[in-house]
Here is the input.
Amino acid sequence: MRANPRPAALNVVAGGFVVATLDLTYACAFWAMLRHVPPTYVMQYIASGALGKAAFEGGTATALLGVAFHYFIATMMVLAYTLVSGRYRALIQHPIRHGLPYGLLLWGVMTYVVVPLSQAQPSAKPLMLAVVTNFLMHLLLGVICAWFARRAHGLRG
Here is the structure.
């Protein structure tokens, strides 16, 4: 990393903010349009990963907890890429080439590790449109992680 860690840390946090905001906006808009699911429910679903079914009875408090979890996880995604790219410089030299596979990794870890190990109740019958759009969104999020890692290491553009 750079000699001055402050700009690097700011880029990691900014990247986490962008990734989480974009992903949360996508999820809320997607489910609102498709199934008329309110944003509060989407946020409570995120909190249900830790709280189980009780998250849906907590109102605004558990929705905000879900948002906090979401932003924390997104920031950790950017931080992980930033730390690894400090050892493997090619990861920041080609953010699209390496960000897309990172997005695939993020999707796989979230879909097949994090959510199944959480207390969140998976859908009994996954909707193919949701699976495809979520997959594509994670590819984009991987590129965004790579781009902010690039900035954290002092590279622009």
